[in-house]
Amino acid sequence: MKKSHSFLPTEIIFSCTTVCNLHCKHCFVNRAPRKIEIEDAVNFLNNCKGTSIEKIGFSGGEPFLYMDFLCQVTKTAINCDFMFDQIMTNGDWWKDESDLRATLQKLYDTGYDGKIGLSWDSYHGQSKDRMMTFIRTVQQIFGEDSVNIQTVLDEGESLPLARTSLLTTPSAGDTPATPPVYTLQRSFPSDDAHAWQYKKWFREDYCEGPGHILYVHADGNIAPCCGFSNENPSLFIGNIKQDFQTILQNAAQNRMVKLCYEEGLSHFRRHGLKKLLKAKGKKLPKGKCGDICSFCDFVCKSL
To answer: Which of 103, 104, 105, 242 could crosslink 238 through cysteines, CB 3.0-4.6 Å?
Structure first.
């Protein structure tokens, strides 16, 4: 039965720059060189004060390659009494340990007290020694529980590279405390055959997992979730130069937002998708899609 849900964002994630020091095959970020203007982000945060927004986070690209943004927006968030979620990083952007320590210390001194999320898996190709140094330095500056590892299993892996490396690290005085490791499902774009090779269809969650977020892309466009399909224009609900209420009004009129947060994508798959595809002369790919983000990508491109 269709549930009564609605979109109400509680977090802002700034994808502050598309610049990145790595080129990972499982990443779908548009690599055109873009970055959010600091003044726009500051004004946007001030406008969101007193709304449903409770916390902010940072993504990219590689956010640590845009330190001025991290520091200035952190200061504004503190002034607006927002909490911090996390900064997602590949942890491999620093030149040497002195550079790493100085950069992290600057962020700490600015007032950032959220988590550091480290993307570490086979796709990124990071050095184990550098990742251990990164984790240790983060823990020394921000605290032992300040870092977590988010990893995507490559085909054929039974354990994430991050967990395997941590398990085989010999005990030593300078060995970092083992942070939690979260294994994420790799998402494939809907035009990749891998997206349709699941045994079961995705489980409906009305986007409660990655949703209820204002995800600000580096070009200023805003989407309502942090799933990879959020780069589809059909999911855009405004831009960073608009005020919070205007963005909510745009979301209320957005077809994809209604499908994801109110009707449910699984309900639409059973009762509305075939009619839409027939009208456009298209067909549903053979197989089953077990990833709601991949299916969302398909619907976005079909509207």
So the answer is: 242
Q: Are 89 and 116 in contact (CB under 8 A)?
A: yes
* pLDDT, position 170: 61
SS3 letters for 88-101?
A: EECCCCCCCHHHHH
Q: Position of tokens 């990164």?
A: 134
d(CA 172, CA 121): 23
Distance of alpha carbon 35 from alpha carbon 240, whole angstroms:
12
pLDDT at 2: 44
Query: Residues 6 or more apart from 172 whose CB is under 8 A from it?
Result: none
DSSP code at position 186? P
Instruction: Find the mean pLDDT for residues 234-254.
Output: 97
- Closest by Cα among 223, 281, 287 to 251: 223
Residue 28's pLDDT band (boundaries 50, 70, 90)?
low
**What sections of 144-284 are H helices per DSSP?**
161-167, 244-253, 255-258, 265-271, 273-279
Is residue 3 very low, low, confident or very high in pLDDT (cuts 50, 70, 90)? very low
Quote the pTM value: 0.93
Contact, 107 vs 74, CB < 8 A?
Answer: yes
Q: How far apart are CA 11 and CA 214, in angstroms?
A: 6
| Spatial strand order in the sheet of 181-184 | 181-184, 147-152, 115-119, 83-89, 55-59, 11-15, 211-216, 221-225, 238-239
Lowest mean pLDDT among 57-61, 121-125, 221-225, 299-303: 121-125
- CA-CA distance, 259 to 55, in Å (whole number)? 25
Residue 167 phi, psi (nearest 5): -70, -30
Residue 50: Cβ within 10 Å count: 10
pLDDT of residue 78: 98
Burial letters 214-225, b for 16+ CB under 10 A, else e: bbbbbebbbbbb
Which pLDDT score is estimated for 171?
A: 54
